[in-house]
Amino acid sequence: MTQDELKQAVARAALRHVPNGAIIGVGTGSTVNFFIDALATLKDRVRGAVSSSERSTERLKAYGIPVLDLNAVDDLPVYVDGADEIDANGAMIKGGGGALTREKIIAEVAAQFVCIVDASKLVPVLGKFPLPVEVVPMARELVVRRLRALGGEPKLREGYVTDNGNVIVDVHGLAITEPRQVENTINQIPGVVTVGLFARRGADLALVGTAGGVEERSFR
Ligand code: 5RP
Fold first, then answer.
1. pLDDT per residue over 196-211, tens digit each?
2. Distance CA 111, CA 128 (A)
């Protein structure tokens, strides 16, 4: 199976976790694009979606799926999103697609985080994938210096501006053995909007696309 076929398989499997008549949270990325395509085949089953990016919003709307403002929604039974890496405890690196801040906000509201990944995203230790950090532009160099002091090699994502008008610094060379601690430490740097470590609020369930089929891993 190709990587896209694995992504499609987990995207379809995620439909089983979408409650009838619900408003659901929808993430961002190529795997989520397949999820949105799958959701469109059952779109009358959901009342609408809260979206983590302008890209996902556009795709949802193109299928006629209503997109709601998070402020108009009290709770979300489920949030479906991909990840760049996920470890054995459900902690993740996210933000390869630059949508980490809205993703973290929606994940915080959702009762259940269903992570959809192909097996290449499973790692023993987070950090091989450069850790994205969303930063207020005027704080860029301050944050870069602080991240370097933590032992990483921060690189500005050139020419990229987030949906929130900020920049992204990708931190290379970290081996994140204590994800919660690293998440807290980086979040404390003034000017950091969000670090793309999802450890404090990790995944509840991962659907993993493998050559043998979709495997479910429960973390809570
Ligand atoms: C976007 C994300 C994505 O979930 C992550 O980058 C995985 O993307 P893909 O499904 O394309 O591999 O965090 O900000």
1. 999 999 999 999 999 9
2. 29
Q: Please choose, from the candidates 84, 42, 78, the residue with its C-alpha nearest in 3D space to the C-alpha of residue 63.
A: 42
Structure tokens that stand for 42 in this block = 């059952």
| Span from the CA of 129 to the centroid of ligand 1 (angstroms) | 11
From the CA of 118, give the closest atom in ligand 1: 12
Question: 31 C-alpha vs ligand 1 centroid, how far in Å?
Answer: 7
Q: What is the pTM of this model?
A: 0.97
SS3 61: helix
CA-nearest residue, atom 10 of ligand 1: 31
Assess contact for 162 and 169: CB atoms under 8 A: no
Active-site choice (103, 153, 215, 216): 103
Amino acid at 154: P
Q: What is the C-alpha to C-alpha distance for residues 14 and 3, in angstroms, rounded to an integer?
A: 17
In short, whether 99's Cβ falls inside 6 Å of ligand 1 is yes
Average pLDDT, the chain: 97
- Give the Å distance between the CA of 96 and the centre of ligand 1: 5
Q: Which residues, in sequence order, are CB contacts of 17 under 8 Å at separation 6+? A: 78, 80, 112, 114, 205
| CA-to-CA separations, 60 to 12, 84, 107, 166, 177, in angstroms, rounded | 16, 22, 18, 24, 36
For residue 43, CA distances in Å to 22, 37, 108 come to 11, 10, 24
